Amino acid sequence: METVALVIGIIHIASAIALLNGVTTTFGQSRVACQAMESIARQPEAADDIRSAMFVGLAMCETSGIYGLLVSIIMLFANPLVDILMSLLG
Hints:
It contains three helices and no strands. It is mainly α. The protein has a single domain, classed as F1F0 ATP synthase subunit C (F1FO ATP Synthase, Up-down Bundle). The longest helix has 41 residues, at 2-42. The chain is rod-shaped, with a radius of gyration of 20 Å. The termini are close together.
């Protein structure tokens, strides 16, 4: 049983690390928006191109955060490795 408790503890730590992706995603999105506003201020005639590139970048950042959340949920609630470990231990 100690092995199972150790594995579950490590899974929780890994899940917390996966959720840190959401924190870094927030900083990345703010950086993208800041740079886009600065670029539009410098070249107002290119605002449409900059804005569409910004939205693509923000969508990619947000997708990365959602993937981190999904990986964390899978590790916590549907981890097949715990089932394998339980079957090996009997």
